[in-house]
Design a protein that fits this description.
This protein has 318 residues and is α/β, with parallel strands linked by helices. It has 10 helices and 13 strands. It folds into 2 domains: 266 residues, Putative cyclase (Glucose Oxidase, domain 1), CATH 3.50.30; 32 residues, no CATH class. The chain binds acetylphosphate (UVW). GO terms for molecular function: hydrolase activity.
């Protein structure tokens, strides 16, 4: 059996954007989304129609999560039963009753933005910060600066499943930047520098159909690492990669066997923001119906101090 190379070795010559936006930068390629890019996105709003891309938290059909994480659990703290005879509901003048509940959740356990400091190798995270800055909470490149900044611009949906003529891509099905370009051409949309890319595989359909099969043969479809693909992302100045899978890329690189190579080549090295576990089904159906695959995208994760990620409900406006 061939040995899996260390990411330090595999990505030794991979481009980085470290230092490009100064030694204190924590939002990476989102810097590409200048006011001009925001207005470029706004100019695509034609019908005033909104699409929200977050998956339901606490879905009765289940919440897909990365193996080893557990879905969020929501618990009622107060509800009407607490004011029943002998109940402990707090008493307020005037007879106020109310519902309160709480959520225990992995911050990467639902539709989410990853912080740029979420993954690393070789002891350094985005921009060269020491990986020890993650101990006890991310001091650098947490999700907080992304949340403070917000994300908006022109986005393009690339419907890989429809383009390949299937309902959903299967485990480990790979595609690359040339496929993205071919898919865009088939959809009649131009990919431009600084576009936010939204990729549809519909792979999570398998989770909802057969959860045991989904985890039994876990290996997501998605973009696959190559030096050319990474260079294409760098040249195109892609700020944000948004997908409907749990981890935005083929889980294990079929060539080297290494796990989540693009998390490192794109997020850690180029500073590309990752948005994962999105539900793009309604948006994709609408794009197929009207033939318009470009639109305004806006999102802001929650402002959580020192967090490695945060839930988000991105909004697309056509
Ligand atoms: C891991 O980091 C394992 O995955 P994700 O980016 O989906 O949170």
């Amino acid at each position: 059996m061939t040995e899996v190379p260390d990411l330090t070795e595999l990505l030794a010559d991979s481009p980085t954007n470290w230092g490009k936006w100064g030694p204190e930068d924590e939002v990476g390629s989102l810097n590409y989304l200048t006011a001009e890019q925001v207005l470029r996105g706004v100019s695509l709003v034609k019908r005033g129609e909104l699409f929200t891309l977050q998956r339901l938290i606490g879905d009765p059909k289940g919440d897909p999560v990365w193996p080893g994480r557990s879905p969020a659990t929501k618990e009622m703290v107060w509800d009407e039963s607490d004011w029943d005879e002998g109940g402990e509901g707090p008493q307020f003048p005037g007879g106020l009753h109310y519902a309160d509940d709480k959520l225990e959740a992995f911050l990467q356990g639902s539709t989410q933005y990853d912080a740029l400091g979420h993954v690393w190798y070789g002891g350094q995270i985005w921009n060269g910060y020491d990986a020890r800055t993650t101990v006890g909470g991310l001091e650098k490149a947490s999700v907080e600066p992304i949340a403070q900044r917000g994300v908006a611009g022109r986005a393009v949906l690339l419907d890989l499943a429809r383009w390949r003529g299937v309902e959903a891509l299967g485990p480990r099905e790979a595609f690359n930047h040339e496929d993205l370009q071919a898919c865009a051409a088939a959809q009649g949309v131009e990919l431009r520098p600084r576009d936010i890319l939204i990729l549809r595989t519909n792979h999570l359909e398998l989770f909802f159909r057969d959860e045991e099969a989904f985890y039994g043969d876990f290996g997501e479809p998605g973009l696959v690492y190559s030096p050319e693909l990474v260079q294409w992302f760098a040249d195109m100045e892609i700020p944000n990669l948004v997908t409907d899978t749990i981890a935005n890329e083929v889980t294990y690189d079929p060539e080297s066997g290494a796990a989540l190579v693009l998390h490192n080549a794109l997020m850690r090295n180029l500073g590309v923001a990752f948005t994962e576990i999105c539900d793009v089904e309604k948006l994709a159906a609408d794009c197929a119906a009207d033939g318009v695959y470009e639109f305004f995208y806006v999102a802001a994760p929650l402002k959580i101090h020192g967090a490695s990620g945060s839930p988000v409900n991105p909004v697309v406006i056509k």
